[in-house]
Design goal:
Blueprint (H helix, E strand, L loop, with lengths): L1 E2 L5 H9 L5 E8 L5 H14 L5 E5 L4 E5 L6 E2 L17 E6 L2 E7 L5 H20 L53 E12 H10 L4 H16 L8 E7 L1 H4 L9 E7 L2 H4 L3 H15 L2 H21 L3 H16 L4 E5 L12 E7 L6 E8 L2 E10 L3 H12 L5 E7 L9
Parallel strand pairs: 5-6, 9-11, 11-13
Antiparallel strand pairs: 1-4, 2-7, 2-12, 3-4, 6-7, 8-14, 8-15, 9-10, 13-14
Length: 420
């Protein structure tokens, strides 16, 4: 039996408390049709390398937990949404699908974040490309030649100090502008829009304005939202997700290890020239990414998670308590932006034509960014039916001369993950 670790508690119990399908689909489009035989062998080797992810989620009257799963991780020839931790997936928390020239990695977000998922995906793609194209360079990629280190399956937040209850600050309660509650958008099933941008053109624009991809996208969405709703009683506040591993000196863990940067698009920032706005957003990112600040914030979060777990003695109580915490966090932000960073594995890059990230709707409006092989891939996620905000964001790209191509709009195809 493996207990849910400190850094994963909110994701696991909170998602069930809000009835979210809390899984991610990473999709790569390659240069050729996928060879299922080679991919099957690549998956077998990847499962062997990441054996600590071969688990099934269970629950009893008190807790959720994992047990080892000796079954093979499944390979399915489909683009359709699948169900994890079910008979379809051999009761694994991850699976691989393929169709035509596309490979999908479906994985439970409760056990790993984007950085951890990239680690699994890079190994899978390496073994596939080695068999399909004969590549041998696996610099930075974990293979069977590399020993599995204890750090890979250890949650660093388990080792952060526990603060006394009186030392844990109360969460912020001032809600941000909500596109559904305040903007009167119509709630709907989760939808995604995939947008491709030439990297050279986008980076030339961001560099000229002292921005990074993540801060630039955050600011452009703020402008779109500000123009759509100029009269507001609540602030436009956004979350920019950052990787907490460097600050905790734990680069190899697969567990959820993220923190957030807060951007508040206030009147003072709005009055600045656009390039100054970019500089402010980038400066906020530097300040809020400071090692001491992030470690302190994650210590508070870990302590709060432990306290809630201890105060809720049953599974239902824990699910409800963490669900309320997750719901409260959603109210703090008008939207979220997440960027794991540019693809690091050069030997695989020539074979990747597209790279899309479809995630759970952790906020009513959320943007995932990926960058590989000379292109930026944006996926806009939303939980309302109108496309006003998507069009407003695209208008911002047009306004600043940033070329783009709308690749597809669809219902979110990230896997289902039901309560065990």
């Amino acid at each position: 039996m493996k207990q849910i670790t400190t850094g994963d508690l909110l994701h696991v119990y909170g998602s069930f408390g809000l009835h979210l399908n809390y899984a991610v689909r990473l999709t790569v489009k390659l240069t050729d049709q996928i060879d299922g035989v080679i991919l099957s062998d690549a998956l077998r080797k990847t499962q062997q390398r990441f054996s600590f992810l071969s688990v099934r989620m269970r629950k009893d009257s008190e807790s959720l937990y994992y047990e080892e799963n000796p079954n093979p991780v499944v390979l399915l020839n489909t683009d359709a949404q699948i169900s994890l931790n079910s008979e379809q997936s051999n009761f694994h928390v991850w699976a691989v699908c393929y169709k035509d020239d596309r490979i999908h990695l479906d994985i439970y977000h409760g056990i790993s974040d984007g950085t951890g998922m990239y680690m699994v995906l890079s190994t899978l793609l390496f073994y596939y490309c080695a068999g399909r194209y004969g590549i041998s360079d696996h610099t930075g990629i974990r293979t069977l030649e590399d020993p599995v280190e204890p750090e890979e399956s250890t949650d660093p937040q388990d080792y952060l100090p526990s603060l006394a209850p009186e030392q844990i600050p109360k969460p912020r309660v001032d809600p941000a502008f909500s596109m559904i509650e305040d903007g009167e958008m119509t709630p709907s099933t989760p939808k995604v829009w995939d947008i491709e941008i030439p990297e050279e053109a986008f980076m030339r624009f961001t560099s000229a304005n002292d921005a990074s991809p993540g801060t630039m996208i955050s600011l452009l969405i703020a402008h779109a939202l500000d123009e759509m709703y100029p009269e507001r009683s609540k602030p436009i506040t956004s979350s920019y997700i950052i990787n907490g591993r460097p600050m905790l000196h734990f680069p190899k863990t697969h567990h959820n290890c993220v923190n957030t940067v807060f951007f508040n698009f206030n009147d003072r920032i709005r009055a600045m020239p656009f390039d100054r706005q970019c500089t402010v957003y980038r400066g906020i990112t530097f300040i809020q990414s400071d090692e001491q600040r992030v470690a302190g914030a994650m210590t508070v979060g870990a302590s709060r998670n432990r306290m809630v777990l201890a105060m809720a003695p049953t599974y239902e109580a824990r699910k409800n308590a963490f669900g309320q915490m997750l719901a409260g966090g959603k109210r703090l932000f008008s939207y979220m932006v997440s960027y794991v960073g540019k693809w690091k594995y050069k030997s695989l890059e020539p074979y990747i034509l597209e790279f899309w990230t479809h995630v759970p709707i952790a906020n009513d409006f959320l943007v995932e960014i990926a960058a590989v092989n000379g292109k930026i891939f944006l996926t806009i996620h939303q939980s309302f039916s109108e496309d006003n905000m998507v069009q407003g964001f695209l208008d911002q790209l047009r306004k600043h001369g940033i070329p783009f191509q709308m690749k597809q709009a669809m219902d979110n195809d990230a896997a289902a993950f039901h309560e065990p």
